[in-house]
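Problem 12. The chain below contains 137 residues. Write out its predicted structure in C-alpha cell notation.
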Amino acid sequence: MSNLDNIDENLIEIIEDKLNSGFIKANGMEILEAKKGYVKGRIVINELHLNSWNAVHGGCIFSLADTIAGIAAISCMGNVVTLSGNINYIRPAINTAEIIGEAEVIHSGSSTAVVDVLLKSHEGKILSKSTLTFHKV
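Solution.
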C-alpha cells in the first residue's frame, strides 16, 4: 500500500489483511485510495504478468478488477465472496508499465453488492470494463 493518507482509517486494517494474502501479495497489487463504496488500485506489470504475446494476461487483469471490487464491496457490507463477474476487454495491455483501476459500488443491499470497475493503462487508455456481484458472508 503506497499512501495511507488516501485510505479511510476504518478500512486500513481490512486492506492490509487483504493485501497480505498470498495471491494478491505475489501479484503485487496495491491500493491507492479507498473510502466507503470506492477503491482505486493498481498493479505494476512485470514479465510474470505477460502472456505469450507479451500482453498482460487477461486473468491478471480480471484479478485486479475482482480484488479492488471486492474491497469496495467489503467497505459497504463486511466480508463478501464473489458470486459472478463479467469483463469486457477493450484493448490489449501491451507495453503497459502498470494498470490502474477504479471500483465503485453501484448497489449494496442486505446480502449482495454490485460493483463496476474500469481499468486503464498508465497512459490512461481504457483496458477493460467489469461488473462484479458479491454475496455477504
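Discussion. The mean pLDDT is 93. Students who got a different answer should revisit the alignment rule from Section 12.3.
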